[in-house]
TrEMBL record:
Function text: ATP-dependent serine protease that mediates the selective degradation of misfolded, unassembled or oxidatively damaged polypeptides as well as certain short-lived regulatory proteins in the mitochondrial matrix. May also have a chaperone function in the assembly of inner membrane protein complexes. Participates in the regulation of mitochondrial gene expression and in the maintenance of the integrity of the mitochondrial genome. Binds to mitochondrial DNA in a site-specific manner.
UniProt keyword list: ATP-binding, DNA-binding, Hydrolase, Mitochondrion, Nucleotide-binding, Protease, Serine protease
Organism of origin: Glycine soja
Domain Lon N-terminal: 93-304
Record text on subunit structure and interactions: Homohexamer or homoheptamer. Organized in a ring with a central cavity.
Domain Lon proteolytic, chain residue ranges per copy: 770-954
EC number: 3.4.21.53
Record-annotated membrane-spanning stretches: none
Catalytic activity: Hydrolysis of proteins in presence of ATP
Protein known as: Lon protease homolog, mitochondrial
Family matches, as Gene3D superfamilies: 1.10.8.60, 1.20.5.5270, 1.20.58.1480, 3.30.230.10, LON domain-like, P-loop containing nucleotide triphosphate hydrolases
Listed Pfam families: AAA, Lon_C, Lon_lid, LON_substr_bdg
Length: 961
């Protein structure tokens, strides 16, 4: 091809556009050309890395001669052909380092020469009409990773290389490159033939002596070479189908290559592949044509794999984009169509319309300041961009504002008789509590409104505080909302977050109003005594603002940012321990104490309330089960002795679940064994007689084997006297077909109670039948209700002046002080009674309060401790079934205590017959229901000597009542 360029002498070698000089008819080229679908006329390779020029195997004419001649012919219009040295004559050349890839013969490459000396030398040599240089690939620095693309910094270092250092870094084999043109520091090189460096001639610029390399001779007709080259071509063809980039390379190459020889094919493949520089250098250095073809084949195969991956990536991305675009377009079209048909307005208008629709019916009742804010926000919404975050904040805000029940109230019912009926319907007993609630309703009726009071129901767990709250709401015809503040530490839970926070929400009370849809619900604030300590703000103060009737008419929620009137809301709180309620809150409350239930009350609650609801919840009919009184009593006394009834409820549920399972199993067995009995029977035959008849029929119908499979429990029930069979008659079609089904009635008695609830888990509080010397029963109050406790004192050792008292049983400071006081009081009394008895002075004593794991505190055990010490000193046990409570002073006065009802109930539970209370508590005791006081011998005392007489001397005690 060079030959042709030279001979035509009219073509100028241009760095970007190379024109074909020869249309080769090589079969290989035709294959590639046809695949590329190319035409040389539009071949533009501007800016591409690879360019094609001619190269020779040694017999070519010199291309620069042609170029020069052409230039001359243009300028001088002369056709004189000078004799110029041929490429193979250049045995000493300037060495040009190539950083990124080697230059292959037949391709051209632009390089940037940063070294001014080298650039000048190249320029000079070009001007001297010897425009050749040797282009050699630079070796990587020994430690550099060839796979890592060198940064510009590294390039800079390479440009600094000079002389010997540069010489050592050059690969030995390179390419004789024609300097096609120089623009600034850009030099365009055209590869010609392979060279090998033999020695360095001069250092700056680096000049080297070179040998010109020739390919090893090969047989053109060798089948293996042919086959390999065909494989290279076919692979190239495959790549061409997918890669447009390659198509351009081929286009350029085919335009300028003459004969497609095997070595040239190998160079072509390697040069246009994306292989790394070392792999390319390997191909350049290979002089064996077959081996070179093989190396190239590897590279193009790899290229094909890459192009396949490239194609699949492109396809996947294209599919994704087009799918999304399609969906977007369709959505937009849908919107446009809907809008056109008047089915839907745009988002903003639709939203505004929705909010206006919501607020319109409430407009009359809605406070003007709220209306103003809503209107302002609606106007603002119109101006905001629908995708902005401000828009969604405003939308949510409007959603809340318009959803609240402004001015909506449920009609309050102040009918006291109805209220009484509802309260009795839901709860047994609690007479005093119900009375207080009825009083409250009566006041509401006279005033026309029930606001202004906060009721606080206090008592141990499971006594029905929450459910009473629900009943009050029902009685007053108010909506009910409950929220627990146990452990609540964040003020935002009550007062809401400011709207500026992401995910901001109004507080619980605003959520409540939205939820119930009226502005006068009954809000039950549960566990107010367990309010957490706030880390940001004080929840108690926030609750105060919410509950205080003086303040809550203008309650400000941080989210809503407009005042709301909560004065119509009725607040009911519940607490286990009133003392734990923050004082400012307690101050505003009307405390209604629910002390707990005695056995009798629990029996009624279990029978009339818990059993009924549980039976219904389990889907069991009343006739299918019988729980005897004895069973219930055993359940209450041995399993559920605590003050509340929640545990009792759980046990009843357990029993009923077991019964349900029994019935279902039984029913399945009967279904499987029962034969339908066809008989025409009048419905009035299905009386008591029929029960017996059909029962005997049924027994006949049951397969004896199957019958034997029934569970032991069922046998037990069946064999009991009270087991019955009931019949269900069913009519079907024209004939009266009677299906007889037996429904066993499950009996729960004291004897089989353990089958349902297991062994009793509760150990009696009473550990002594008759208290020994030094042991006295006291009465205590806990958050779980009342309980009995023993004070035990024993003698440890005796010795002159050894009179000390050792205390154990996790006693608090107050209780420890009480014990010291008791010790002193007992010593004084003994001195008065038995002056010569040196017991307290010389005895080391140990006082213990059992249930050592439970912390105890308070002064109310003072009288019990004194009695216990005196009992030990006098070696005289106290009266049987006696319990006492009362704080004792140093002078022996008995001061009042708390929790009289709880303590009385606990005493009854422990079968105490005689109780001693401080005189000051007489009023509390008198207020108790008669059934609580029933059968108890209660004494009220104000001086310890009265207790002494009651505990140790029967005769005198009769007088103190
Ligand atoms: N006097 C009663 N009559 C009928 N059922 C009752 C009575 N007292 C309590 N109950 C029932 O006992 C169960 C437990 O009551 P509730 O949950 O109201 O207890 P609580 O006092 O609120 O307990 P806590 O302090 O643990 O919240 C409820 O199902 C309730 O109906």
């Amino acid at each position: 091809m060079l030959k042709l360029i030279a001979s035509s002498r009219i073509h100028r070698v241009h760095p970007t556009v190379l024109r074909p000089a020869h249309h080769s008819a090589s079969p290989l080229l035709r294959v590639l050309s046809s695949l590329g679908g190319l035409s040389w006329r539009n071949a533009n390779v501007g800016g591409r890395y690879f360019f094609c020029s001619d190269s020779s195997d040694g017999s070519d004419h010199v291309v620069d001669a042609g170029v020069q001649a052409a230039e001359e012919s243009e300028s001088k219009a002369s056709a004189i052909v000078p004799t110029y040295p041929r490429p193979e004559d250049y045995l000493t050349v300037l060495a040009l380092p190539l950083i990124h890839r080697p230059l292959f013969p037949g391709f051209y490459m632009p390089v940037f020469v940063k070294d001014p000396k080298l650039l000048a030398a190249l320029q000079e040599s070009r001007e001297r009409q010897a425009p050749y240089a040797g282009a050699f690939l630079l070796k990587d620095e020994p430690e550099a990773d060839p796979s890592v693309v060198s940064s510009s910094d590294a390039d800079k270092n390479v440009y600094d290389l000079k002389g010997k250092e540069l010489f050592n870094r050059l690969h030995e084999v390179g390419t004789l490159a024609q300097i096609s043109s120089i623009h600034g520091d850009q030099v365009i090189l055209i590869g010609h033939r392979r060279l090998r460096i033999t020695e360095m001639v001069s250092e700056d610029p680096l000049t080297v002596k070179v040998d010109h390399l020739k390919d090893k001779t090969y047989n053109k007709d060798d089948d293996i070479i042919k086959a390999t080259s065909f494989e290279v071509i076919s692979t190239l063809r495959d790549v061409l189908k997918t890669s447009s980039l390659w198509r351009d390379h081929v286009q350029t190459y085919t335009k300028h290559i003459g004969d497609f020889t095997y070595p040239r094919l190998a160079d072509f493949g390697a040069a246009i592949s994306g292989a790394n520089k070392l792999q390319c250098q390997q191909v350049l250095e290979e002089l064996d044509v077959y081996k070179r073809l093989k190396l190239t084949l590897e590279l193009v195969k790899k290229e094909m794999e890459i192009s396949k991956i490239q194609e699949s990536i492109a396809k996947a991305i294209e599919e994704k984009i087009s799918g999304e675009q399609r969906r977007y377009l369709l959505n937009e079209q849908l919107k446009a169509i809907k809008k056109e048909l008047g089915l839907e307005t745009d988002d903003k208008t639709a939203l505004t319309g929705k909010f206006r629709e919501r607020i319109e019916p409430k407009r009359e009742k809605c406070p003007p300041h709220i209306l103003q804010v809503i209107d302002e926000e609606l106007a603002k919404l119109q101006l905001l961009e629908a995708s902005s975050s401000e828009f969604s904040v405003t939308r949510n805000y409007l959603d809340w504002l318009t959803a609240l029940p402004w001015g909506e109230y449920s009609d309050e019912n102040f009918d006291v008789t109805r209220a009484q009926k509802i309260l009795d319907e839901d709860h047994y007993g609690l007479t005093d509590v119900k009375e207080r609630i009825l009083e409250f309703i009566a006041v509401g009726k006279l005033r026309g409104t029930s606001q202004g009071k906060i009721i606080c129901l206090s008592g141990p767990p499971g006594v029905g505080k929450t459910s009473i709250g629900r009943s009050i709401a029902r009685a007053l015809n108010r909506k009910f909302f409950r929220f627990s503040v146990g452990g609540l530490a964040d003020v935002a839970e009550i007062k809401g977050h400011r709207r500026t926070y992401i995910g901001a929400m109004p507080g619980k009370i605003v959520q409540c109003l939205k939820n119930v849809g009226t502005s006068n619900p009954l809000v039950l604030i549960d566990e107010i005594d367990k309010l957490g300590r706030g880390h940001a703000g004080d929840p108690a103060s926030a609750l105060l603002e919410l509950l205080d009737p003086e303040q809550n008419a203008n309650f400000l929620d941080h989210y809503l940012d407009v005042t709301i009137d909560l004065s119509k809301v009725l607040f009911v709180c519940t607490a286990n321990v009133v003392e734990m309620i923050p004082n400012p809150l307690l101050d505003r409350m009307e405390v209604v104490a629910i002390a707990g239930y005695i056995t009798d009350e629990k029996m009624h609650i279990a029978r009339d309330y818990l059993e009924k609801t549980t039976r219904e919840a389990c889907g069991i009919k009343p006739e299918q089960v019988e729980v005897t009184d004895a069973a219930l009593l055993a359940l209450i006394e041995n399993y559920c002795r605590e003050s509340g009834v929640r545990n009792l409820q759980k046990h009843i549920e357990k029993i009923y679940r077991k019964i349900a399972l029994q019935l279902v199993r039984q029913g399945e067995m009967i279904d499987a064994t029962m034969l339908p009995i066809k008989d025409k029977v009048d419905s009035d035959e299905l009386g008591q007689n029929a029960v017996q008849n059909k029962n005997s029929e049924l027994v006949e119908g049951i397969d004896p084997e199957k019958e034997s499979e029934t569970s032991d429990e069922i046998h037990k029930v069946q064999s009991s006297d009270q087991s019955q069979c009931l019949e269900v008659a069913k009519e079907s079609g024209g004939d009266k077909e009677i299906e007889t089904k037996t429904i066993e009635q499950v009996l729960v008695d004291e004897s089989n109670l353990t089958d349902f609830v297991g062994k009793p888990v509760f150990h009696a509080e009473r550990i002594y039948d008759q208290t020994p010397v030094g042991v006295v029963m006291g009465l205590a109050w806990t958050a779980m209700g009342g309980s009995t406790l023993y004070i035990e004192t024993t003698f440890v050792e005796e010795g002159e002046g050894k009179g000390t008292l050792h205390l154990t049983g996790q006693l608090g400071d107050v209780m420890k002080e009480s014990a010291q006081i008791a010790h002193t009081v007992a010593r004084r009394i003994l001195l008065e009674r038995e002056p010569e008895n040196p017991f307290f002075a010389n005895s080391k004593l140990h006082l213990h309060v059992p249930a050592g794991a439970t912390p105890k505190d308070g002064p109310s055990a003072g009288s019990t401790m004194t009695t216990s010490l005196l009992s030990l000193a006098m070696k005289k046990p106290v009266k049987k079934d006696l319990a006492m409570t009362g704080e004792v002073t140093l002078t022996g006065k008995i001061l009042p205590i708390g929790g009289v009802k709880e303590k009385t109930i606990a005493a009854r539970r422990s079968e105490v017959k005689t109780i001693i209370f401080p005189s000051a508590n007489r009023r509390d005791f008198d207020e108790l229901a008669p059934n609580v006081k029933e059968g108890l011998d209660v004494h009220f005392v104000d001086d310890y000597m009265q207790i002494f007489n009651l505990a140790f001397d029967d005769e005198q005690s009769q007088n103190i009542k």
